[in-house]
């Protein structure tokens, strides 16, 4: 799912955590096929958001709106599935290390 308004492009993965899920019109559902890894797309959308790709194409009056017509026209660099999985796994590992380092630093700060 991709945020359409406010922080456009902010993405999350829906893993059927609830029996039913309803989304409002400010969220786009992005269906993936068997050749697309959800974790890879989560990172890809994060990077595109940070690089300003979505901000460069949004409609803006008071807050940004990433309409579906513009989202589907964004060019995405999509490697083969195995490479997507390898990239996502690598990033998962690195983020875990970073999170642990942050937590350790926070604990050390409390001792000061």
Automatic annotation (TrEMBL):
<dbReference type="Pfam" id="PF01420">
    <property type="entry name" value="Methylase_S"/>
</dbReference>
<dbReference type="GO" id="GO:0003677">
    <property type="term" value="F:DNA binding"/>
</dbReference>
<keyword id="KW-0255">Endonuclease</keyword>
<dbReference type="GO" id="GO:0004519">
    <property type="term" value="F:endonuclease activity"/>
</dbReference>
<feature type="domain" description="Type I restriction modification DNA specificity">
    <location>
        <begin position="2"/>
        <end position="110"/>
    </location>
</feature>
<keyword id="KW-0238">DNA-binding</keyword>
<keyword id="KW-0378">Hydrolase</keyword>
<dbReference type="InterPro" id="IPR044946">
    <property type="entry name" value="Restrct_endonuc_typeI_TRD_sf"/>
</dbReference>
<dbReference type="InterPro" id="IPR000055">
    <property type="entry name" value="Restrct_endonuc_typeI_TRD"/>
</dbReference>
<protein>
    <submittedName>
        <fullName>Restriction endonuclease subunit S</fullName>
    </submittedName>
</protein>
<comment type="similarity">
    <text>Belongs to the type-I restriction system S methylase family.</text>
</comment>
<dbReference type="GO" id="GO:0009307">
    <property type="term" value="P:DNA restriction-modification system"/>
</dbReference>
<dbReference type="InterPro" id="IPR051212">
    <property type="entry name" value="Type-I_RE_S_subunit"/>
</dbReference>
<keyword id="KW-0680">Restriction system</keyword>
<keyword id="KW-0540">Nuclease</keyword>
């Amino acid at each position: 799912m991709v945020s359409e308004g406010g922080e456009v492009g902010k993405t999350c993965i829906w893993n059927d955590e609830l029996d039913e899920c309803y989304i409002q019109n400010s969220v786009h559902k992005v269906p993936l096929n068997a050749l697309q890894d959800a974790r890879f797309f989560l990172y890809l959308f994060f990077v595109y958001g940070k690089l300003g790709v979505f901000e460069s194409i949004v409609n803006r009056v008071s807050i940004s709106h990433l309409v579906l017509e513009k989202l589907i026209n964004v060019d995405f660099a999509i490697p083969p599935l195995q490479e997507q999985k390898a990239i996502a796994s690598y990033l998962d590992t690195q983020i875990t290390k970073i999170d642990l380092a942050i937590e350790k630093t926070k604990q050390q700060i409390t001792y000061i």
